[in-house]
# Entry
Amino acid sequence: MELFDVYPRFDITPVSARGCWITDQNGERFLDLYGGHAVISIGHSHPEFVKNLSEQLHRIAYYSNSVQIPLQEKLCAALGAASGLDTYQLFLCNSGAEANENALKLASFHTGKSKVIAFKNSFHGRTSAAVAATDNPSIISKLNAGHEVAFVPLNDLTALENALSEEDVCAVILEPIQGVGGLGMADNAFMESVAMLCKRYGAVFIADEVQSGFGRTGKFFAFQHSTATPGIISMAKGMGNGFPVGGILIHPDISAQSGMLGTTFGGNHLACVAALTVLDVLENEKLISKIPELERYFRMELSAVPYIRQIKGKGLMLGFEMEFEVADLRKKLLYEHRILTGSSKNKNLLRILPALNIGADELDLFFKALKTELQ
Ligand SMILES: Cc1ncc(COP(=O)(O)O)c(C=O)c1O
# Structure
């Protein structure tokens, strides 16, 4: 049998990892500024993560949602405390796309409507409604294209209000900071207006925090840089530090009905322990409060690097747009300097999404490599 060949892959084979470092099969070490696409939040193989998951594995790894799983209630309490959203309700699933799929479905159940508004350059995942709300026709099959989605430009309030005005919209789905799309940012005032207009026209504001959540931008959720109140917040990636777990937080105005949503694996014992451990480590190591200083350092150091047009992003969801395409630069960083970085839809943009406990000394290795390549 062969793998279904859908991924362009770099020629490295990680066999172990610790913190921000990956070791390959030849014993070579790589600095991981990509975090497996913003997934590694508290660092690879964090000792607490290894200990807690191993201990849970020895007790019980999994049972379905047909029984009591008190770890889920423990996670509700911890997430409520960490995010300040303790009045919201939690539904657990396994990935970012699944979180958004459930968010959109729930918005449709709640409003009785079906049209979705998404934004230019959005990415919300590969399942049917999530991919239909993704601004990339090449990954939307005929099957997915049956959903009714209007794409409006980010930060264009007039276009948004026009699209909402027929009152046939169930959800407006927005990444506060676009990931795959290339770090386009919703202005705080715009996010606040999205929330307000959704209320006015009877739609649900879904904040897609799959990539930007769990502290990555210096607040627990990126929308919390504003005063907006979403109806649903989707999350995944950093939530499990590599263990597959996702979820949605649901505003108290939206009521649950038995059987409305469901999943076999979502909220299993191991997934809950992974997410609880991430929350514990974020708190114990005060990781979120250290992020603004790391962002300042990144911006300051990069201001001395040539050929950079613009530094983009927030917290540790950062990147810079060069005057040229960055594919060759990323290859040089990987194969000559042993540094993994990220890309985006914008071919001139290089992104970094490191573990939230990265140190300035590790970032220095990146700046040094960049200066060597570009000067
Ligand atoms: C903002 C956003 N939403 C949703 C997804 C989909 O997540 P997953 O790949 O876990 O399905 C991604 C993945 O990159 C993402 O960046």
User: Anything to note?
Assistant: The domain at 48-284 is CATH 3.40.640.10 (Aspartate Aminotransferase; domain 2). The mean pLDDT is 97. The CA atoms of residues 12 and 24 lie 7 Å apart.
